[in-house]
Amino acid sequence: METRSRTVSGMRPTGPLHLGHYFGVLKNWIALQESSHAYFFVADWHALTSDFADTSALRRNIAEMVKDWAGAGLDPEKCVIFRQSAVKEHGELSLLLSMITPVSWLVRNPTYKEQQQQISNKDLGNAGFLCYPVLMAADILMYKPRGVPVGEDQLPHLELTREIARRFNSFYGETFPEPQALLTPAAKCPGLDGRKMSKSYGNGIFLSDSFVDIEAKVRGMFTDQARMRRSDPGNPDVCNLFPYHVLLTEAPAREDIRQGCTTAALGCVECKRIFLANLRAFLEPLQERRIALERRQDTVEDILAAGNKRARVFAEGTLAQAREKMGL
Known about the structure:
Layout (H helix, E strand, L loop, with lengths): L5 E6 L7 H17 L1 E6 L1 H8 L6 H15 L7 E4 L5 H10 L4 H5 L2 H9 L8 H4 L1 H10 L5 E4 L4 H18 L7 E4 L27 H9 L22 H7 L2 H12 L5 H28 L3 H27 L3
Parallel strand pairs: 1-2, 2-3, 4-5
């Protein structure tokens, strides 16, 4: 008897994926495709909520992101990979859920308030941005998952989804399970300059970067800013590079690096050389899978077309049930 549960998650196609995306999201997705009925979608409608003014790179970003997913290890034979806007049921369910969602719930959304204050180079005064949590709720509830992989910063979004599900069920009868958070373990992936790794900051190591580019980036990477000379002892706990040894270096070697840094027996140049070797060993299989995908004509389109079809089968049933419950 089938005992696997369903899970669903998505990602906005806003640019190339970096190491932070892999260790913060994709690594968990790859595990979930083995243990659950996993649905992973390209959130292209969500991308429009903030990037509607210039969509010239949207289609390219979608294709490149799917290549990164496949290179990282997502297997369309083990999970459903689809494009949000190709499954129109998401849009209709979002509209239906918006009928029962109080505006006050959307305005109090902490992300809405924070981004309105912090992002000054984009117009976020559109209705789509205000209502994106309702679309997110539709994306999730459509597949009736028991668990949703999220980081701690996304817990308010998931709680709003749970509130919308609860309100729908109270009006129309039990329809949607309230999804629980599958907390993704935090993975510290600082950017090359010590800030959060981000395409907009130009401080990322991307999954598709050539090793020539990566070597140049790592050579200029900040380490322990207090370590001015080779003979100065360092502090791995404040070093910008050491978190990557936590992720990529085996424990015994990692402890040797810590000891070498704190005693000044190991310099930053040697430390970066070790990191580069480990990073190459990690990235080469990912990039080989990505290149193999690029060499096969129309493969990205085929992956999405097959995934869209599989997602739509489930979505049609959910939407039909919601419509019936609402008297439509």
